[in-house]
Each structure stands twice: as C-alpha cells, then as structure tokens.
Amino acid sequence: MNEAQIDLAHTVALGLIDDEDHHAIHTIIDTEDPTLCTEFLRELRGTREALAVLGSSTPAPPPPSLRTRLLTAILAEEPPVAS
C-alpha cells in the first residue's frame, strides 16, 4: 500500500471523504489484488480503533508551568515585519 492509500484509509476513518475519495475507495476495494484490499481494510480498522481509544481517554490537565513557558516563548519571538 502506498502513502496515498494509507492517507485515504485515515480519511475514511475520520469520515471526511468526498466524491473523489469514494471512487478511490471503490478502486481499492474492487481490485483484483486481495492483499491491497486486506491492507487497506486493516489500516482503516486500526485507525478507527486508535480514534476510539483516543476519544474515550480522559484528558490530563497541563502542567502549571506550561502557561508561563508558552507566554515566554511568544514574547521572545520577533514581531512580523510589514512588507
């Protein structure tokens, strides 16, 4: 499976497919290469499982020092120069 097909599996798992994606999905699913179809479905299933775990996790509060570190980093940046 190539990177575009992996990206497509992730897009499907996120529910963000469009008409062009539908065509690409059918091309993979209807292929005569059973390995490609199996790999695509495995990637799709794995991504959905990872999203389910992520969605059910309890967020941890950020460390108290994070706000100070972020503000310090922002203030240290040079302001954008108008062109």
UniProtKB/TrEMBL annotation:
Could you tell me the superkingdom of the organism this chain comes from? Answer: Bacteria
- The segment(s) forming the Anti-sigma-K factor RskA N-terminal domain are 6-52
- Supply the Gene3D superfamilies for this chain: Anti-sigma factor, zinc-finger domain
Q: Any idea which UniProt keywords this protein has?
A: Transcription, Transcription regulation
- UniProt-listed Pfam families: RskA_N
Q: What is this protein called?
A: Anti-sigma-K factor RskA N-terminal domain-containing protein
- Please give the organism: Nocardia rhizosphaerihabitans
